[in-house]
Structures are given as C-alpha cells and as structure tokens.
C-alpha cells in the first residue's frame, strides 16, 4: 500500500502545478494581436491626421481667446491666418487699428500658432469687435494627409466651433 499512497501524492502535486494557457487561448491572443498590428499600428505611423486635428483645436482655442480678449479689453482684436501661421493683434484705442500683438497669458510673448509640416491652412483675416462679434462669418479649412477639419466662426454671435 505504500507505493499507491506515494503515487497519489505525486499525482496530486503534479495536478496542482499544472497551470497555464490552453492552445485555444494562445491562438485567440495571437489573432487579437495580429488584428491590432494590422489596423492600429499603421494609423500611428502617419501623424498628419493627428496634427490636423490638434492644430484645428488650437485654432479654435486661439479664436475663443481672441473673442474673450476683445470683450475684456473693450478693443478690437484682429486675427490673421496666412502661410500656416495664426497671429492675434489688438487695437490700442477704442475703434483703432490693430498694431501691437496680443500677448499669450501663459508665456507673455506674442500670441502666434504655427502649423506643423504637412498641415495646410486656408488664409483668413478678420477681427472681433468690443462686443465679441466677428467682422464676418468665417469658415477656416485645415487639411493634410487626407484629413480635413473646418473651424467656423458664426457671424452675429462669434461662436467658434
């Protein structure tokens, strides 16, 4: 009876040690990794689409800042988009022309945005008056890498979306 007891003890210990993945689990994991590699990885290789989206969000933020600055300062704030660069200027007096640059509150430097290479921006020039209204409705096209975004400034309210 002694040999049977040791055999049972060995088989019980062996059963406790057998832990791991089954072949179907490994195959399913490999299939999921393969699908991710085929679909997701190429998307991260071309950053232009992400750059277009990021720059369009930055333009929206800058236009909202320009509108709020015009209201807070009770001055005209001019927006200029040309050559992939956005700049903001403010008038020195009520109803005056825009000459000095509007300062970025975080850096204290002139507020400018420059698009990354591969991102193209339609040229535009307009202003926000002291009530935050734009001089004209604007639709600014930002594109690159087969992706395009549009930034719209509504005519009467100045709402940027």
Q: What brief labels describe this structure?
A:
161 residues; transmembrane; elongated; five-stranded antiparallel beta sheet; 8 strands; transmembrane helix; alpha+beta
What does this structure look like?
Keywords: Membrane, Transmembrane, Transmembrane helix. This is Type II secretion system protein. Pfam families: N_methyl (PF07963). The chain crosses the membrane at residues 26-45. There is one protein chain. The chain is of the alpha+beta class. Helices cover 40% and strands 25% of the residues. It has helices at residues 2-17, 23-45, 48-73; strands spanning 77-82, 85-91, 98-101, 112-114, 120-121, 124-128, 138-144, 147-153. Strands 1, 2, 3, 4 and 6 form a 5-stranded antiparallel sheet that branches. A 3-stranded antiparallel sheet has the order 5-7-8, with helices on one face. A hairpin with a 6-residue loop joins strand 2 and strand 3. The mean pLDDT is 88.
Short description:
With 161 residues, this protein is an alpha+beta fold. The protein is built from three helices and eight strands; from the N terminus they run H-H-H-E-E-E-E-E-E-E-E.
Q: Residue ranges: pLDDT <50 for 5 or more in a row? A: none
Strand percentage: 25-35%
| Gyration radius, in Å | 30 Å
The description of the largest β-sheet is: 5 strands, antiparallel
Individual helix count: 3
Question: What's the average pLDDT?
Answer: 88
Count of β-strands: 8
Helix content: 40-55%
